[in-house]
Design goal:
The chain is mostly helical and 196 residues long. The chain is 84% helix and 0% strand. The protein contains four helices and no strands. The radius of gyration is 72 Å and the shape is rod-shaped.
């Protein structure tokens, strides 16, 4: 077996890959084979029947997959989504109708409450007015009784005062006459002077 040293000793250098003896002819034969095949296999008419057959097999397999698996799933998802949206819209309309009904009921209750409050206030005002009128009439009766008693006392005091006025006037006249004339006048003289 010849080693690297033996080859070097023999004066032969090892050839680079692809440059071994006979490699040139192999490359040239491969290039010639490609040129005789007509370039890419896709453009070689001899390959077309197989390519068309595989294209049709893959195409129909893909169509069958789309028809029986993908499209029904997508269609089912779309139908489910549409059903959910329709259901949500129906629920929203139902809740809106319920809210409107509750709002109308609340408005009716509020109006009824206002009417009841007005009625209670009116009854309270009427009751208060009746109580005030009754108390006023009681007070007027009491005041009338007190006024009658006061008038009676005043009349009695006036009569007593009028009875004493004559006596006081007579005494005052006697004192004046006595002071002016130095004589004391009698009651008869004073009465005669008052009448005259």
């Amino acid at each position: 077996m010849q080693t690297h040293e033996d080859t070097a000793a023999a004066g032969h250098e090892p050839a680079a890959p692809g440059h071994e003896p006979g490699a040139t002819g192999a490359h040239e034969g491969a290039a010639a084979g490609h040129e005789s095949a007509g370039g890419l296999p896709q453009f070689d008419f001899t390959w077309w029947p197989g390519q068309i057959a595989w294209f049709l097999i893959i195409f129909f397999a893909l169509m069958a997959f789309m028809r029986f698996f993908a499209t029904p799933k997508v269609g089912g998802t779309i139908d489910a989504r549409e059903g959910k949206i329709t259901g949500d819209i129906a629920d929203a309309r139902r809740m809106k109708d319920e809210a409107d009904a509750q709002a109308r009921a609340a408005a009716a209750e509020s109006a009824e409450g206002h009417a009841q409050a007005r009625k209670v206030a009116s009854e309270a005002r009427a009751k208060a007015k009746a109580e005030i009128a009754a108390r006023l009439s009681e007070e007027e009766v009491k005041l009338a009784a007190v006024a009658a008693q006061a008038e009676a006392r005043i009349a009695k005091a006036r009569d007593a005062a009028m009875a004493n006025v004559a006596t006081i006037a007579g005494e005052t006249a006697q004192a004046i006459v006595a002071k002016l004339t130095g004589k004391t006048a009698t009651s008869a003289e004073l009465s005669a002077a008052a009448k005259g």
